[in-house]
UniProtKB/TrEMBL annotation, chains A, B:
<dbReference type="Pfam" id="PF03807">
    <property type="entry name" value="F420_oxidored"/>
</dbReference>
<dbReference type="GO" id="GO:0016651">
    <property type="term" value="F:oxidoreductase activity, acting on NAD(P)H"/>
</dbReference>
<dbReference type="GO" id="GO:0008823">
    <property type="term" value="F:cupric reductase (NADH) activity"/>
</dbReference>
<dbReference type="GO" id="GO:0070967">
    <property type="term" value="F:coenzyme F420 binding"/>
</dbReference>
<feature type="domain" description="Pyrroline-5-carboxylate reductase catalytic N-terminal">
    <location>
        <begin position="3"/>
        <end position="96"/>
    </location>
</feature>
<dbReference type="InterPro" id="IPR028939">
    <property type="entry name" value="P5C_Rdtase_cat_N"/>
</dbReference>
<dbReference type="GO" id="GO:0052851">
    <property type="term" value="F:ferric-chelate reductase (NADPH) activity"/>
</dbReference>
<dbReference type="InterPro" id="IPR010185">
    <property type="entry name" value="NpdG"/>
</dbReference>
<protein>
    <submittedName>
        <fullName>NADPH-dependent F420 reductase</fullName>
    </submittedName>
</protein>
<dbReference type="GO" id="GO:0050661">
    <property type="term" value="F:NADP binding"/>
</dbReference>
<dbReference type="InterPro" id="IPR051267">
    <property type="entry name" value="STEAP_metalloreductase"/>
</dbReference>
<dbReference type="InterPro" id="IPR036291">
    <property type="entry name" value="NAD(P)-bd_dom_sf"/>
</dbReference>
<dbReference type="GO" id="GO:0006740">
    <property type="term" value="P:NADPH regeneration"/>
</dbReference>
<keyword id="KW-0560">Oxidoreductase</keyword>
<dbReference type="GO" id="GO:0005886">
    <property type="term" value="C:plasma membrane"/>
</dbReference>
<dbReference type="GO" id="GO:0015677">
    <property type="term" value="P:copper ion import"/>
</dbReference>
Amino acid sequence: MGGTGPQGKGLGYRFARHGHDVVVGSRAADKADTVAAEIRERLEGVEGAGRVSGAANADACADADVVLLAVPWDGHDELVASLPLAGKTVVSCVNPLAFDKRGAHGAVIDGGEGSAAEHAARLAPEATVVGAFHNVSAVLLWGDEEFLDEDVLCVGDSDEGKEVAMELARAVTGRSGVSAGKLRLARVLEPMTAVLISINRKYKVNSGIRITGLDHGEA
Amino acid sequence: MGGTGPQGKGLGYRFARHGHDVVVGSRAADKADTVAAEIRERLEGVEGAGRVSGAANADACADADVVLLAVPWDGHDELVASLPLAGKTVVSCVNPLAFDKRGAHGAVIDGGEGSAAEHAARLAPEATVVGAFHNVSAVLLWGDEEFLDEDVLCVGDSDEGKEVAMELARAVTGRSGVSAGKLRLARVLEPMTAVLISINRKYKVNSGIRITGLDHGEA
């Protein structure tokens, strides 16, 4: 998985905690190693945890079945184009946001007809690209709750790809992610994070989204 | 309130059920009368219900403090420009959606830098425009549950205006709506309805959104 920021680190921790082997990727391998060590430290004593290591981005991808893109939008396209993604399931949780005095909002991508996830799909045509984990609080991911009280919305044009993300979501929420439509709906999920950031600032909380009306293993 | 479609009818019913007087608006006064009669029928025996009547759109607005825009995006601008909205709080729940073989998605407005709510604000500069109630299922609004198990996200540039919508939300969910940022974030809430429609189709449900991490009077 690519990304040593709070979102990538938090998701890597959650995935490893539930048995997935994780290779943290970064431009600089030593940065990735540092984050991997932080995650391993938090996993001490967790039975059944996966192995966690660090590597330069391309090396981190090389042996992975699933690549999580948790990278900044700035530089996204160059980075994605440089990675060996063919044949892999690529999960994008990239949130192209902009900030000004009025708060967070979605960056306008391709005149409103694009998203980071769609960019990844175009740049890695032999990968199966899915959008998921956009709206999960990095603070809560790194926190102590066993599971986060929210849903992971998964969008994609491949049902198989979506199912990979929906299964991964179990490590975060304790239940399957929600199949939420085609990849282009990442145009909504990505800037939805700006709405949650606005709520967080207003109420001093770490908010998340739950989908009501579903019965998919909720308490 | 303007709109005799399922969203407008359902919201009118919920508002009246909790004591708000409602004037249903439509292009044709007799269509509005018919919908008002349907709502009154459902309110029979409900103590403390508000009065419900019908009128042509402009007449429906004339004496209202709060105007709910629950109208199609097609023709939205002409209609809004024709209404006497100065000095009023205008709540837009308009969802500009498009549908094709791949399902529902957001219509692209102003190259990704606009929304129905922002259009309303521009067309009615002396009104206080808020976006809210976009993601509430019309089926559930017209259904039998006392309250809907979801949150009403309210966006706007006026805190006073947002509070009007947040209070109105109590009639729908039993608790205050959620202050979710500036009006431009309607660019996210409007097409979020396409995500819920996709979930509804996939799981055969009537889905809604709840914000987790908040403590605002939840059970």
